[in-house]
């Protein structure tokens, strides 16, 4: 009927039907007799199913709700909420990339600096990554009857067969010392990275052991219950170096402690109370069993170092920590003052007091640590400001008139481990580390509370 039909019945007679603007891979559409087709875009109102033509197995589906299921998905990258998935994954560690483990006895170390290859593991080294090399603790014994000895352990990195690869590069060395017959645990933990004399590719990390003096050591974990592991772990990319040698500078946050340099107790007339309580213990107010009436105390700190460290700082907290060991009753009131004294006096001179701050009717733990807040403000100044702006060097304490309701005893400079100290957290320049100051919390007061 038709001289050149497109279809005969329901079959496509021509090789293809296509739009007038069809250009393969560019524009238009086409449907071919072999079952293939090309379209610019498409809309499906039902599910899409992809089937393996040879087996009939469903390889992938997209249902009418937009949920997809695939066998595998390959892509150079995915972006989720503007964040590259590839970049995120590359910025984290890959975990363990090489490991040797055994429950058997390790070979005995060599002697006289002749190193024995104890164990090794393979891994793929990447110059842009950072690696942690570790060994679980293994017990070795100095078998000598009389001699002291040193066990030498070293990690050796090697890239056999790689052009330019590292050849037997010693990347770590440690030493154990033991007396005759003594047993020591060998544990290794270090990091390595970079490309110095190394390249990308297959590598080995070997543990070698020797004694440096000819004395034989033996591995003691022979029971089969102690599994020894020699591990290489990828911990992340080699980032740009941040920092420098020496003391850091700039607006960093520090916690610094200033330990008391001296302390003394004084009687009601301001006269120094001698041994044993002149330095070891310091008191406020009057105890019935002590003949010194209304006692006071003075604690000296290195104010010059504090002023140098804290110049221009922004403070998070500043605390005077005291260890209370005795109180007449549960609540002990204390009035603190800042003095310009650089050393404790024989007679306390009130003219050197540049400020007074009240801490009224506060509960001191007995026994225990507690702190007075040096950032509390009285008369427009904080107690810390009196140290920094008014040449303060010490703290005096006495009963707060007219409240003298309780006598309180604290440990003083003479009781090591319980000495008063000032703890300050601030943002600013690095502390000098002198004058009794140091990094980190003082190790005291963590079970105490604030006054």
Concise structural overview:
This protein is mostly beta strands and 451 residues long. The protein contains three helices and 34 strands.
Structural class: mainly beta
Give the averaged pLDDT, no decimals: 83
Given as residue ranges, the uncertain stretches (5+ residues, pLDDT < 50) are 434-451
Q: What is the tally of beta strands?
A: 34
Q: Report the biggest beta sheet as strand number plus sense, adding barrel if it closes.
A: 8 strands, mixed
CATH architecture of the largest domain: Sandwich
Helix content: under 10%
Integer-rounded radius of gyration: 38 Å
Alpha carbon gap, first and last residue? 107 Å
Could you name the CATH class of the largest domain?
A: Mainly Beta
Total number of helices: 3
Total of domains: 2
How much of the residues is beta strand, in percent?
over 45%
What does this structure look like?
The chain is mainly β and 451 residues long. The protein folds into two domains: 143 residues, Jelly Rolls, CATH 2.60.120.760; 193 residues, Sandwich (Jelly Rolls). Strands 20, 22, 24, 27, 31, 32, 33 and 34 form an eight-stranded mixed sheet that branches. The longest helix is centred in the last third of the chain and has 7 residues. The C terminus is likely disordered.
């Amino acid at each position: 009927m038709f001289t050149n039909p497109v279809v005969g019945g329901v079959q496509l007679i021509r090789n293809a039907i296509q739009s007038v603007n069809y250009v393969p891979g560019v524009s238009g559409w086409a449907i071919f007799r072999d079952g293939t087709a090309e379209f610019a875009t498409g809309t499906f109102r039902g599910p899409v199913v992809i089937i393996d033509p040879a087996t009939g197995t469903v390889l992938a589906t997209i249902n009418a709700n937009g949920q997809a299921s695939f066998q595998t998905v390959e892509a150079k990258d995915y972006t989720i909420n503007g964040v590259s998935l590839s970049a995120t994954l590359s910025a984290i560690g890959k975990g363990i990339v090489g490991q040797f483990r055994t429950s058997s006895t390790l070979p005995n170390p060599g002697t006289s600096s002749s190193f024995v290859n104890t164990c090794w593991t393979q891994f793929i080294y990447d110059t842009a990554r950072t690696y942690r090399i570790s060994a679980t603790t293994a017990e070795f014994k100095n078998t000598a009857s009389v001699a002291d000895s040193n066990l030498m352990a070293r990690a050796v990195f090697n890239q056999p067969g790689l052009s330019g690869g590292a050849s037997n590069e010693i990347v770590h060395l440690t030493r154990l010392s033991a007396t005759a017959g003594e047993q020591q645990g060998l544990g290794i933990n270090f990091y390595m990275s970079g490309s110095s004399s190394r390249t990308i590719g297959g590598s080995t990390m070997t543990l070698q052991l020797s004694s440096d003096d000819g004395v034989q050591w033996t591995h003691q974990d022979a029971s089969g219950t102690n599994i020894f592991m020699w591990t290489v772990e990828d911990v992340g990319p080699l980032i740009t170096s941040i920092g420098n040698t020496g003391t850091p500078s700039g607006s960093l946050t520090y916690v610094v402690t200033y330990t008391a340099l001296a302390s003394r107790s004084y009687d009601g007339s301001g006269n120094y109370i001698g041994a044993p309580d002149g330095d070891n213990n310091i008191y406020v107010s009057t105890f019935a069993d002590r003949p010194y009436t209304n006692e006071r105390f003075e604690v000296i700190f290195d104010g010059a170092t504090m002023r140098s460290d804290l110049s221009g700082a922004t403070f998070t907290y500043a605390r005077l920590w005291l260890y209370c060991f005795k109180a007449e009753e549960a609540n002990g009131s204390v009035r603190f003052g800042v003095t310009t004294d650089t050393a404790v006096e024989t007679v306390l001179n009130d003219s050197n007091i540049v400020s007074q701050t009240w801490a009224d009717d506060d509960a001191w733990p007995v026994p225990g640590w507690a702190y007075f807040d040096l950032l509390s403000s009285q008369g427009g100044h904080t107690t810390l400001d009196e140290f920094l702006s008014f040449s303060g060097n010490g703290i005096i304490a006495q009963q707060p008139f007219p409240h003298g309701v309780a006598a309180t005893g604290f440990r003083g400079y003479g009781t090591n481990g319980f000495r008063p100290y000032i703890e300050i957290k601030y943002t600013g320049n690095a502390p000098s580390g002198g004058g009794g100051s140091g990094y980190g919390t003082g190790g005291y007061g963590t079970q105490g509370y604030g006054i």
